[in-house]
Amino acid sequence: MLTVNDLVEKLELKVVTTEAPLDRPVAGGYASDLLSCAMNKAKKDYAWITLQSHMNVVAVASLLGLACIIITENGVPDSDTLMRAEKEKVPLLVTAKTTYTVAGELYTLGITGD
After folding, report:
1. Measured distance CA(27)–CA(68) in Å, rounded
2. Are 1 and 18 in contact (CB under 8 A)?
């Protein structure tokens, strides 16, 4: 099973958190910009792909036990979001790629969703 660190390397993602573990397994993936959809469909150890970069994405990821959040289109989390992600140990990863592209790349790596 691939880990968050594997995704960082294979998808050339930028890690913007320093305290969050990158050795977590990634069991699947989910892509959505709606928090309510992510809360309903994403599962423990999933990678969540979104262009949202505010503090509430960290709260959802922490609540669900997600492996990481991949923020697309060069979204920049503010300092409060970064502090919350560090506290909750949620890896925040950033890329210039679109959500569509990242989802396709995850699928190519064998990471699927339901």
Report:
1. 11
2. no
pTM: 0.97
Helical spans, DSSP H, in 12-98: 35-41, 55-64, 79-88
- Compute the distance between CA of residue 62 and CA of residue 68 in angstroms, rounded to an integer: 9
pLDDT tens readout for residues 32-78: 999 999 999 999 999 999 999 999 999 999 999 999 999 999 999 99
Q: Which residues is 47 bridged to in the sheet? A: 29, 68
Contacts of 44 (CB under 8 A, 6+ apart): 27, 64, 65, 66
Q: Could you give the domains of the chain?
A: 4-108 (3.40.1390.20)
